[in-house]
Structure formats: structure tokens, C-alpha cells
Amino acid sequence: MANTARKLNFMIRDEIARELEALVPAGERSRTVNDALAKELLAIRRRKLTDRLRTLRKKGPPVATEDIVAALRKDRKSH
């Protein structure tokens, strides 16, 4: 599938826009912003998943580290 792009309309703080214009050549700005946004979205997804795992962990019974290691070893041997 080819990479497609969409034009979005949103605001960027003035000081960030000035720094972007000063540091990044005109032809590279979209790529730079896309890369930065992709990294931030990944961080947001990871935080949400971590929060979900913490919530699930609180709901379940505590499990000893040795039990976890044993279960992982057993699972790996079966594959």
C-alpha cells in the first residue's frame, strides 16, 4: 500500500514554529513533524497499555516470580 498523506489544520505554539523554521529546512519539516508525532503516539499507546496492565494486575491474585519463570519455561519448551 502506498504511503498517503493528509493535510491537517492545527495550531503550533509560536516559539516551536520559529524553532522548527530555524532548525529544519523547508523540504524536511513535514517529515520531521511526522516522525515526532509518530514517536509521541507510540509513547501514548504504551502509557495506556501500561495503565491497563497495572489495572489488571491489581484485579488478579499475586503470582511469585518463580511461578512466572516456570510457566514461561514450560511454554517455551512446548513450542
Question: Which descriptors apply to this entry?
Answer:
79 residues; mainly alpha; 70% helix; 0% strand
Describe the structure in your own words.
With 79 residues, this protein is mainly α. The protein has one domain (14-78). It has helices at 14-23, 29-59, 65-78. The two termini are 33 Å apart. The relative contact order is 0.05.
Provide a brief overview of the structure:
The chain is mainly alpha-helical. Helices cover 70% and strands 0% of the residues. The relative contact order is 0.05.
How does the SSE layout of this entry go?
Elements: H1 14-23, H2 29-59, H3 65-78
Determine the number of helices (DSSP H or I, runs of at least 4 residues): 3
Which regions have little confidence, pLDDT < 50, spanning 5+ residues? none
Report Rg. Answer: 22 Å
β-sheet strand percentage: under 5%
* Overall number of strands: 0
- Counted up, domains total 1
Class computed from helices, strands and strand pairing: mainly alpha
The percent range for helix content is 55-70%
Instruction: Let me know the largest β-sheet.
Output: none
What is the rounded distance between the termini? 33 Å
Shape: elongated
Mean pLDDT: 94
Written as H for each helix and E for each strand, in order along the chain, the element string is: HHH
